[in-house]
Amino acid sequence: MEKFPEWLNATLASDASEGEGVLPNNILPLQANSLVVGPAHVVLMSQDDNLSVRKALENLPEPGTVLVVAGGNTSRTATLGGLMALEMKNGGIAGLITDGLVRDSREIREMNFAVWCRGVTPTAPKKNGPAIVGGTVSIGGKVIRDGDLVIADDDGVVIWPQERIAELLVKAETRLKQDNERLARLQKKKP
């Protein structure tokens, strides 16, 4: 799997893409100081039903992949809980992005599994399906495909289309250099 620079974060990713690919700001990190950068593996869940997430775990993607679960924006039940989160972490999944809810939030935080979600609930989901794993999904009007790059941290989640990753990395690094030069100038002006 491709290695991405440690300096890459959601702010630089958003600046590089001029705000394109930024997911809605109601999808927040479950835990402060979370950061994940990796290719997306997409799943479409049904309302109040996570059979598709279970199916995704039966055939784990490459380690370092970020599971992106769409379709949960109206769900009242959890996309996953602590046991599935541990299964994902043990399987090498780098993190989870969902427009749904999660449960067992303390367990998930304690295991240090990176999750971005709409909120929490104690309610378990159904497992009736349908189960759609792979392909293309949409969250907040933003299209996400298998292999697109997910950049997520405390500021939010940004998706870069796979065919633009190299170009956007150059733009992000240029912005980082500009910001560092400005920071150096500002620090010199201290009274």
UniProtKB/TrEMBL annotation:
EC number, as in UniProt: 4.1.1.112, 4.1.3.17
Protein's UniProt name: Putative 4-hydroxy-4-methyl-2-oxoglutarate aldolase
GO molecular function: 4-hydroxy-4-methyl-2-oxoglutarate aldolase activity; metal ion binding; oxaloacetate decarboxylase activity
Domain of life: Bacteria
Keywords: Magnesium, Metal-binding
Cofactor: a divalent metal cation; Mg(2+)
Keyword Metal-binding: yes
Pfam families: RraA-like
Function, in words: Catalyzes the aldol cleavage of 4-hydroxy-4-methyl-2-oxoglutarate (HMG) into 2 molecules of pyruvate. Also contains a secondary oxaloacetate (OAA) decarboxylase activity due to the common pyruvate enolate transition state formed following C-C bond cleavage in the retro-aldol and decarboxylation reactions.
Reactions this protein catalyses: 4-hydroxy-4-methyl-2-oxoglutarate = 2 pyruvate; oxaloacetate + H(+) = pyruvate + CO2
